[in-house]
Fold these 2 entries.
Entry 1:
Amino acid sequence: MDLQIKSFEDYQNTYQHSVENPEAFWAGIAENFYWRRKWNNVLDWNFKEPKIKWFEGAKLNITENCLDRHIYQHGDTPAIIWEPNDPNEAHRVLTYKQLLDKVEQFSNVLKNNGVRKGDRICIYLPMVPELVIAVLACARIGAIHSVVFGGFSAQSIADRINDADCRLVITSDGGFRGTKDIELKSIVDDALVQCKSVERVIVLTRTRTPVSMIKGRDVWWEDEIKKVETQGNPPCPAEEMDAEDMLFVLYTSGSTGKPKGVVHTCGGYMVYTGYTFTNAFQYQPGEVYFCTADIGWITGHSYIVYGPLSQGATSLMFEGIPTWPDAGRLWDIVEKHHVNILYTAPTAIRSLMAAGDSYVDGKNLSSITKLGTVGEPINEEAWHWYDQKIGHGKAPIVDTWWQTETGGFLISPIAGVTPTVPGYAMLPLPGVQPILVDENGKEITGNDVSGNLCIKFPWPGMLRTTYGDHERCRQTYFSAYENLYFTGDGCLRDENGYYRITGRVDDVLNVSGHRIGTAEVENAINMHSDVIESAVVGYPHAVKGQGIYAFVIASQHHTDEELTRLDINKTVSRIIGAIAKPDKIQFVSGLPKTRSGKIMRRILRKIAEGDTSNLGDTTTLLDPGVVDEIKEGAEKLRG
Ligand code: WT7
């Protein structure tokens, strides 16, 4: 069976079959992968507990699907093309054969360092090929990877390491991003002061910045590789995994303070990311596919590593940032490597658009045939710029809606098959059953309606639990509405039945396509000694999509407001990471609260948006007077 849907009619038939007979449908798709043993049962589920089991009884290793099975016919096909931060440094290409060799080699390094199936490994690396190698080596020996994005702070690393009880950390001396050299090992050292479970740290050389190697704990990646070479580079056969064994944990923010470890398992995740990758992008052999995300996020896991590699694709990864040495960097990369498919975030598109057309005019982008976006709703202006300037009006844009928890795309056009409308994710992929509900969980049927977006039937790529706390998984995703997975997003379905995601309906912000919980930012701000209380909301930001607006009650101590602002930003960077720094901090003497003490964020959101004409009902407030003061302060801050 051909995995790819070829026409809209084909899509409609496939979709219908997938809904009427999901088990037969997914079994058929799964036949396209390599299993050591097939499943006894396709699906066992209920959303009450929740219990979600796909392909029970099946045995596999995802790296055999991503590497070994391509070697015979496509061993010399590039698997990874790596473009360094500095355009003057040589790029690297790893063919499938070379990548397999390196993965086996590093798998043996992990084994030599005592790693066994089921162990949790924290990976904190820059965007270098060794990050892909480390991820796949974990998967090969059945260790569970927990990749932490290089922008997170020592405290965030420590929280994640402790939550999953990681035994080993893989990092590098540093990482290059634009003009910056980020001292990753030093940040890890700060984190490990709080982590008793970590016995070993493997350190890759990248920037040659000085590092402190602790005797008995820290070893160099390169030395460990040499040991394996001295052993004669033995192969490392892939560990046999159950379909429902854990593959990885990835932490993501929610409406409460503490990020949760989203758990994905081997079989379903493999099938789902492979199927959605090849379909949405209509990947053709030989095409060069470039996803600009970082592997520290789910987009990188699913659509730089596992999805493309399971399909034998050529996946281009980029170490740097789109604006360095200048805002033409992505276009230079497209030209240099003849990129056919480009997948990036609306925030990147907006910032490159704002830099001016001079950075794109004159670049040869004729190789591009398909485009994608992810992470947040895309505004029409950015969509048209992307379409005209980058796609020259000829490349379909797939606006892929999904989440860390969904593992892969749920609602997305299929390139060249599904019609597209700017700002719309369009239609559910096969196997995905979206429904809109009102506050009471009542289904909103028909077209030209909007509501809260839920999914009523499992798909193979969905999360199975939150690490170490199944009840939290149930609470967060399966308790709002009975027998439904709740996405946290608002959504409209237009008169044609096309879906448009309108944004989060919970207290979660989407800043440059990254999810940040307001409670998490508030907790961090509140750790500053001058802060008594704070409330964080999002506001429209021209480049980031949403900016972070903090209303802060500070104690008498502060004399210099600007300095206190910088101090608070520093605190947030320390506790979470620079990505969570507020864009605006307004000092207030009180917050709008109900008599029961609940902060009325609706009012703060309106003020932050600069729309104070209609603040709605404020009569239930404990002190309605505070609103006028906050309004005045906001106007002053805007200047
Ligand atoms: C949230 C998930 C999935 C990878 C990147 C973010 C928003 C995601 C879209 C889109 C509108 C989108 C949603 C979602 N989102 N893609 N195409 N259109 N909104 O992953 O950090 O798990 O965040 O991002 O609000 O719930 P994430």
Note: The radius of gyration is 24 Å.
Entry 2:
Amino acid sequence: MKESKPIEFNFLKDKRQEPDKFSVGERIRNSAEVYLSYSQKQAEKQAGRCLDCGNPYCEWQCPVHNYIPQWLRLVADGKMAAAADLAHLTNPLPEVCGRICPQEKLCEGACTLNDGLGAVTIGAIEQYIADTALANGWQPDMSQVKSIGRKVNIIGAGPAGLACAHTLVRHGVDVVVYDKYPEIGGLLTFGIPEFKLEKSIIKKRRQILETMGVKFCLNTEVGVDISIDEICNTADCLFLGLGVDKGKLANINGESLQNVFQALPFLVRNIYNGMGLANQPFDFTGKRVVILGAGDTAMDCNRSALRLGAAEVNCIYRQQVHDLPGSKKEIKNAIEEGIHFVWQKQAIELIGDGHITAVKLQNTAKNEQGKVYLKEGSEHSFSADVVIIAYGFDANPPDWMSHLDIALTSTGLVDTSEQKKYPFQTTNPQVFAGGDMVLGADLVVRAVAHGIAAAKGMLQYLLEKA
Ligand code: FAD
Ligand code: SF4
């Protein structure tokens, strides 16, 4: 047996090294992913920085509780197939989370070395494990899985639905996943742009899930193309992972002017064009684009607008740089690419005659309680040819939820909190739910964690009902 390499103090000689990135010019020209992959040597070296501190806070801060120190050890020892098996035990989408989790707030933020020495690059190594495995034709071992003679219908092929499907098929359940889009992934495909997560990655994952036995019924909106009764009547129970995708309005005059877009329809149309599913390209050449909002979605709009040829992209935010809510690495990428931030201002009107021409802004400040307020008499106008509103999302539960007697919270999210018997069961015992439609707009990895936990709850329910 190959001897383990001594790793205890590698972090002193090997510095934290994130994967290289394409130059800004190349990024903007070709829209592909910004980061290059590690080489095997780089991955082994970076994984070998883990000091195996004995208190894996990284693991606890990871919402799916990945076995991080163990797979870092396997990578450091070059045992990539074993690392892939272990990574998939807790996370059905390691190639996705490795790329787009805000690691500084999760695993890497909790790394013992994140104290001047530089956290282990956990996300990049997780991505490397999964990318290498998928490139080498890795498949989960399903040889011991026996059918339990039960069927689950899942609505929503986003990360919550996919994680739920993955977990259920691994336990011998028949699974059909319905989605209104023509490809799986939910916001991973129809929201997050290529420069963060290429579409080919989700297609590869689809092949694996299909080989495992998951059936996808795409281009099928439940309640429109197929009735909810049919979905209920053809399965023992249901999982809902519908997400939330109703963009919040700015609630100011001028929102219906031409060239004012809501963030998600803008991103989706751009993605449809890129995937060859539509031919309605945006041409922002020479345009002054203004993005309202500064979360992950706003950052994706900023950087997409730049890649569409905008002459300048101005991101208007009512607070300051240290208050920005999104992932730090994506904010850094946006700044590198030339996004201009306009701090401590809020849009109070969109001005134009048919087309948008300017945004009326007002300065903001914070009071002693930390509440942001508008400063009187500070109104001024800011030129704009295009405005994209990225103020977050509200729940938009379909009408058939009430037909199923599923209780909602006052903000329209699915209420799973009062359920005592099984995790993520709704007020309809046959129906479970998870992801953004329970949490509100959140993170991929938390949707994945919900999908897995709900699947475990459903398995208990199905076995007890048998
Ligand atoms: P979704 O991904 O929204 O999937 C729901 C699915 O349900 C969709 O495919 C939808 O078509 C389907 N559906 C809904 N109703 C029906 C119906 N009636 N019939 C059939 N199908 C239906 N998170 C991160 O961790 N990192 C990031 O960098 C990041 N960036 C983001 C960027 C953008 C632009 C956006 C919008 C979100 C971002 N997020 C990010 C958040 C993340 O994408 C979500 O938290 C996550 O996708 C939620 O997963 P979900 O499965 O709950 O829902
Ligand atoms: Fe870190 Fe996200 Fe991977 Fe967990 S899933 S180890 S939080 S990158």
Note: Residues 10-135 form a domain with the Fumarate Reductase Iron-sulfur Protein; Chain B, domain 2 fold (CATH 1.10.1060.10).
